[in-house]
Amino acid sequence: MSGQEAELETQGHLTVDVARLDKGGEWYEGETGPDALDLGDSEFVEPVGGIVYALKVEIAGTELLARGEVRQRLRCVCSRCAATFETEAVDTEFVCSVEINALTDFLDLTGEMREAIMLALPGYPVCSEACRGLCLACGANLNTAVCSCRKKGENGRWAALGALE
Ligand SMILES: [Zn+2]
Ligand SMILES: [Zn+2]
Question: Closest-lying ligand to the alpha carbon of 150?
Answer without folding.
Answer: 2
